[in-house]
Design brief:
This protein is α+β, with helices and mostly antiparallel strands and 107 residues long. The protein is built from two helices and five strands.
């Protein structure tokens, strides 16, 4: 993510983790005869990564509410992988152009 390290250093961007409950825990319920009416279920939750970006009013310079962007580790990993693939492709193209340039200069 372009500029992330500098903006983090300048305290304009920050990253944090929040637990989000997908489904709350359910307790077991039995009727008066001891027959199970509802099974117990554990809480289901997940961690959500939030990237907070400081915002300011361009006219007054006053701070506004942060803009928040949800992320996941998987999204971050996929972005890095995609950029690595782009770098490899561009490096291969550059090598081809350099070889062609060398051949042209050798004429």
């Amino acid at each position: 993510m372009k500029g992330y390290a500098q903006k983090k250093k300048d305290k304009k961007w920050s990253v944090g983790k929040t637990k989000v409950v997908v489904s709350p825990a359910v307790t077991e319920v039995k009727d008066e005869n001891g027959i199970l009416v509802r099974e117990a279920k554990a809480e289901t939750s997940m961690d959500v990564i939030k990237l907070a970006k400081k915002r300011y009013d361009p006219e007054t310079g006053k701070a506004q509410a942060d803009a928040e962007e949800r992320m996941s580790v998987e999204q971050c990993v996929e972005s890095v992988k995609s950029i690595d693939n782009q770098i490899a492709e561009l490096t291969a193209q550059k090598e081809g152009w350099e070889a062609l340039k060398a051949d042209i200069e050798a004429l």
